[in-house]
Amino acid sequence: MAASGTLLVLFLFAHAAGNLKIFVGEADFDHYAHWLREIGVPLLPSGWFLWIQRFGMLLAIGLHIWAATVLTIRAKKARPVKYSHRPKIQGSYAARTMRWGGVIIALFVIYHILDLTTGHLNPVGGDTEPSARVIADFAPSHWYVTLFYVVAVVAVGFHLRHGIWSAVRTMGQQTSKGERRAKAIALALSVILVAMYLSVPFAVTLGLVG
Amino acid sequence: MDIKVRVWRQSGPSAGGKMVTYDVKGISPDASFLEMIDVLNETLILNGDDPIAFDHDCREGICGACSMVINGVAHGPEKATTTCQLHMRKFSDGDVIDVEPWRAAAFPVIKDLVVDRSAFDKIIQAGGYITVPTGTAPDAHATPVPKKDADAAFEAATCIGCGACVAACPNGSSMLFTAAKITHLGLMPQGQPERDSRVIDMLQAQDDAGFGGCTNAGECTTVCPKGIPLSLIGRLNSDYRKAITKR
User: Fold this and answer.
1) CA of B162 vs chain A CAs: smallest distance (Å)
2) What does the sequence similarity comment in the record state about its family (chain B) (predicted)?
3) Taking a C-beta distance cutoff of 8 angstroms, is the pair A91, B218 a contact?
4) Are the CB atoms for A94 and A158 separated by under 8 Å?
5) Given B72, B106, B235, which is nearest A85 (Cβ)?
6) What's the CATH number where B158 sits?
7) Are residues B211 and B134 in the same domain?
């Protein structure tokens, strides 16, 4: 969980940073999107880096889901008889929602790719430029899509708040002081990431971009 | 105090069980939780009913025998306190209190609130020991131990092996228990020769016993009557990583 999760978090930050290019200008954003296909050229043919990275992500996601499934099955087997009285007073909200939060995020990722990568579920889709798709997606009249993005991004935030700290612990963090620090850093990174991701849809909805 | 308790009754390991409600009247607020069950049991015996079976031994909070999930919390609402050291004054007159056994596949119910915790013995047998020559006991100061390490090892060694960590864990994992033993022995010079094999073997025994995997949810440490910190699991992870990379 920790190793595959770390790769996914690094990708999330790179992706979020790229999104912010839209604030520089739509042409710059489109230029950035096309550049992604040219990374590694001429060492690699055009588009290869992107596909290598996509397969790497797919592998990381696969391993992450596989590990989560194994843990969930083991947890179910380890407690065959449930408690009849079980208050939710302990542990954090983030820790308790890792599994269902993860499922929501996985469903969102599928939608997100069909929406902004392939364009099938995008209002404009087709051969349009990436910036046009983003602007069409988060238009005020299309508010339900924006809402779904907000819910999914906040779910990612909660997932990482527990996930980043938990990964640090899995890798051997072992002091109480370090634990407080790791939890604070995990919270800060989650908030920053959520803010980076939400800034784009909100800016489009409010008419600051486009 | 007049209260109602809803207790898990199960006549044997393979029998089905259910929650049964009992009225308990005239209990002193200064009675311990186990004394309240004792009083209830006397009434049950006088009425010709089967008394509630439960584990208890020292009743001083140091043996790790008592094991009740009270209102969904292992050892009840008082932090860092075993069931035997919990007093009825922590409850209110008229309360309905749910009492259940530790729930884990690795801790099968023997009867009512008594569970078989020999899975913990299996984990200890796998590596929770040090090998020393027999003979006269060495002088206590024969092997110097830095004060910091001695204190940290002692903190981990306060684990009484009650199993509350497993009972509270959403995954039914015994990681806090195993981590306490790994830390306790791994911090001492006497624990070094078997340090690598200990962590590998104890984790294997834990998996074989049917405990779940740890997801760092942190429920274990909040119910631990000895306040074993969650950070010890990080130490176990670190020891495990070093042990498997050395192999």
Assistant:
1) 17
2) Belongs to the succinate dehydrogenase/fumarate reductase iron-sulfur protein family.
3) yes
4) yes
5) B72
6) 1.10.1060.10
7) yes
The CATH architecture that domain A2-205 belongs to is Up-down Bundle (1.20)
What tens digit of pLDDT does each residue of B184-228 get?
999 999 999 999 999 999 999 999 999 999 999 999 999 999 999
Note whether ipTM > 0.90 here.
yes
pLDDT tens by residue, A116-167: 999 999 999 888 999 999 999 999 999 999 999 999 999 999 999 999 999 9
Q: What is the pLDDT along chain B (247 residues), one digit of tens a residue?
A: 999 999 999 999 999 999 999 999 999 999 999 999 999 999 999 999 999 999 999 999 999 999 999 999 999 999 999 999 999 999 999 999 999 999 999 999 999 999 999 999 999 999 999 998 888 888 888 899 999 999 999 999 999 999 999 999 999 999 999 999 999 999 999 999 999 999 999 999 999 999 999 999 999 999 999 999 999 999 999 999 999 998 7
Do A179 and B234 count as a contact with CB atoms less than 8 A apart? Answer: yes
Contact call for residues B172 and B211 (beta carbons, < 8 A) = yes
d(CA B230, CA B233): 6
Task: Determine whether the interchain pair B231/A75 forms a contact, defined as Cβ–Cβ distance below 8 Å.
Answer: no
Cα(B158)–Cα(B147) distance, rounded to whole angstroms? 16
The answer to whether B73 contacts A89, with C-beta atoms less than 8 Å apart, is yes
Dihedral angle at the C-alpha atoms of B136, B141, B146, B151, nearest 10 degrees? Answer: 70
**Helices within chain A (DSSP H only):** 2-19, 26-38, 48-78, 93-96, 98-112, 130-137, 143-170, 176-205
Is the domain of B58 the same as that of B141?
no
Provide residues of A within 8 Å CB-CB of chain B.
1, 70-71, 74-75, 77-87, 89-92, 95-96, 98, 162, 165-166, 169-176, 178-179
Q: Give mean pLDDT, residues A165-175.
A: 95
- Contact list, B69 vs chain A (CB under 8 Å): 83, 85
Residue B101 sits in which domain range?
3-110
